[in-house]
């Protein structure tokens, strides 16, 4: 199923986890995927004063894609650096000749309760989840207009929806309020941008996990025993946002178990060669999720 043959996709934060899975899935459909993260080396993460090395590199993602018969290019960039951020779009177009798909996945979740969060952590969270998608989208738009179409997918979160009431214990002490607020802003940004770009046939959609994906970066933030979902369902949902014109599918905030289940979408393995069974969203997932997107 080479539905993306001849297209270029840039996936940020694709050295591991959700970004890597999205890159693999788009490559399986024929896209040339530009894999980017902060550096060629595994990155370090500091949370609560503790620093740890998180596995995963852009070279590893490229190797996985190429081993499955796909095409990928590694372009490391620190997206909080304006010069590197701007150069990433330019170099993507220089290396591949075009930019059709932008997936804004990169992020950093520094969870702290409001009374303990530093201003640096606040700024870093807002930077990752709102400023960077804004800047990359803005830089990508002229290239998509020139091509006559394009697709922007921003990775959202169910935390950006109103919390379940009565409040769960998680909401009382998880420290995700600023992260969730930034994701809520990203949802609204995406829907507004979708309206602005509809006439240009550039689709803008949001895809988030229905529950959570246990990635190397998220593992430390998830409570013991938390029921997670396979990453393939999220990667497939992103793929669905990149294959039809904006007039047919834009401005959605969709979630990775709910969307395939409600629309009857077949979920394929990351290499595109196999099918996974339909997976019903759990009853305890956020009731504010609209199954087919809103």
UniProtKB/TrEMBL annotation:
- Would you tell me the protein name for this molecule? 3-oxoacyl-[acyl-carrier-protein] reductase MabA
Provide the catalytic activity annotation: a (3R)-hydroxyacyl-[ACP] + NADP(+) = a 3-oxoacyl-[ACP] + NADPH + H(+)
Question: What subcellular locations does the record give?
Answer: Secreted, Cell wall
Q: Which GO terms describe its molecular function?
A: 3-oxoacyl-[acyl-carrier-protein] reductase (NADPH) activity
Q: Which Gene3D superfamilies match?
A: NAD(P)-binding Rossmann-like Domain
What keywords sit in the KW lines? Cell wall, Secreted
- Locate the coiled-coil region(s) and give their ranges: none
Q: What's the superkingdom here?
A: Bacteria
Q: Does Transcription regulation show up as a keyword for this record?
A: no
Output the GO biological process annotations, alphabetical, semicolon-separated.
monocarboxylic acid metabolic process
Q: Name one Pfam family in it.
A: adh_short
Glycoprotein recorded as keyword: no
Q: Give the family, as the similarity comment puts it.
A: Belongs to the short-chain dehydrogenases/reductases (SDR) family.
Q: Which residues form the Ketoreductase domain?
A: 7-210
């Amino acid at each position: 199923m080479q539905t993306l043959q001849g297209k270029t996709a840039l996936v940020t934060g694709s050295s591991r986890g959700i970004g890597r899975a999205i890159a693999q899935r788009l490559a399986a459909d024929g896209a040339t995927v530009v894999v980017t993260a902060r550096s060629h080396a595994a990155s370090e993460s500091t949370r609560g004063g503790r620093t740890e090395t998180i596995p995963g590199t852009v070279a590893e993602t490229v190797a996985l894609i190429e081993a499955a018969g796909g095409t990928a290019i590694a372009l490391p960039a620190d997206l909080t650096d304006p010069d590197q951020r701007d150069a990433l779009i330019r170099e993507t177009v220089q290396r591949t000749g075009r930019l059709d798909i932008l997936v804004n996945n990169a992020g950093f979740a520094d969870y702290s309760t409001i009374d303990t969060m530093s201003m640096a952590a606040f700024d870093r969270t807002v930077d990752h989840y709102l400023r960077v998608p804004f800047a990359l989208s803005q830089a990508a738009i002229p290239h998509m207009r020139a091509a006559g179409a394009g697709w922007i997918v921003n990775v959202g979160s169910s935390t950006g929806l109103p919390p379940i009431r009565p409040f769960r214990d998680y909401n009382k002490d998880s420290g995700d309020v600023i992260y969730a607020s930034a994701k809520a802003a990203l949802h609204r940004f995406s829907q507004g941008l979708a309206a602005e770009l509809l006439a240009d046939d550039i689709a803008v959609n949001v895809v988030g996990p229905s529950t959570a994906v246990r990635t190397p970066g998220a593992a430390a933030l998830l409570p013991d025993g938390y029921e997670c979902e396979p990453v393939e369902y999220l990667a497939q949902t992103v793929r669905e946002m990149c294959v039809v014109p904006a007039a047919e599918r834009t401005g959605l905030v969709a979630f990775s178990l709910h969307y395939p289940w409600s629309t009857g979408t077949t979920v394929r393995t990351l290499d595109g060669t196999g099918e996974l069974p339909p997976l019903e969203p759990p009853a305890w997932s956020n009731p504010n999720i609209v199954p087919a997107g809103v």
